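Each record in this resource describes a single protein on a pair of labelled lines. The shape at a given residue is found from the number at the same position. The record below illustrates this layout:

***
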Amino acid sequence: MELTLETRPFTQIESGALVTYAFEGDKPVDAVLTDLDRTLGGELTRLAESKELTGKWLEMTLIHYPQGMKAERLLIVGAGKRDKFTSAELRKLAAAAARYLKSRSVKRLVFLGRADDLSAASAEAISEGLLLGEYEADKYKSEKKNGTSLESSALAGWSGASQADGERGLRRGRIIAEAQNFARELGNEPSNYLTPRVLAHRAEQMGRDFNLAVDVFDEKKLQEMKMGALLSVAQGSAEPPRLIVVTYTSEKAAPGSPVLGLVGKAITFDTGGISIKPANSMEEMKFDMCGGAATLGVMHAIAHLKPGIKVVAIVPSTENMPGGKAQKPGDVQIAMSGKSIEVINTDAEGRLVLSDGLHYARQLGCTHLVDVATLTGAIVVALANVNTGVFGSDTKFIEQVLAASRIAGEKMWPMPLDDDYREMIKSAIADIQNVGSGKGGGAITAAAFLREFTGDTPWVHLDIAGTAYLTEGKPWGAKGATGVGVRTLVELAMTLKS
């Protein structure tokens, strides 16, 4: 979709629809909307007085052929309470407007920024929202819904002194939204079309397109590298595993600057292995590679934004299948680090592949580690699909990640990782076991397992099992993969200090 900045007065802009927003309160038609109301001959005031326009969150008030304007429609979107409104709400609002209007065959949308917030940040949020709202997971539909896609959008209201801010925000918003949609596209792919080898090809193509270094290690190389934990998960599948390493090297990196390692779980389909999952909703297990998709999405963005540090994405990818060669409960595997692991449950496979990925990231010289994984159902029990669970070994680094998430507008919540949980993964016959003993705390014991492979390196684990995909569409987003984590980790890469 084409996305531009319009500097003409809103009355002169031709479009299928002009969009802006109103806050909930006694006077939803506030001073910022006065010019718009005057152009319309007081129609917004009349709608507010009749309670048709209240400003309640995502209330849609559509006016056809608005007086004094070249737009065919005017859409006023409810922004809710002013004191609760942030860039995250603005992003969702813009996305909801895009989805609402494209379902009504609008081809060109112009979003009119409010005069009290013509900043780069608001331009970024609106741009992201429009592009994220336009996205549909309909790649494999033979009959597309005719007339339900936006061909172009524009941001209006920025001019003169604010134009440079608008252009800067629009550019950054487009880069990040396209990266997030790239991650969503990978996440939505059926597992018969997106195998570990195909995922590796996609990463290689991205590297060629954006001048990123990409290395792909096949099963023979993984055996030479002694990645026993990753290979143990892969051994039940006819599809061979791959380890994907994507590297961005900054020309601006100062001596001693951080090297950020992003490790993304990419189980392209997870049956649970011998500890097989129930059939109900197993089709959703194609989303078990959303952590890997997110890390690749981050690299997609930073290739354009060019942070001043080195960033390395490590994506261990395989299927987890049952079969005559599959690992069995009770098996002992030796990870790349040399630690022995008793496999109690073969459906706790994500932490196995991540253990080798984290250890390899340290070998590559990464000074800070973040892993992203649809790791546990337990985090869904704790946080539902609202917040991503955040675990870590370094308080300062955890806060840096959480600060990035707040700026990015992705909800995350810190979880405990006391040393007591280490006792729950002790094994009688190996160094550790891959699930915790006793009841409860499954997301925490999974994080405790991962911490065994991070050493003294500052590390954060993001459990996105509840936030990686939408089981039902929302007003602001299509059903399917969300690309969660991309915005936060891009912000982290752009701001990380030693």
Notes: The chain has a mean pLDDT of 96.
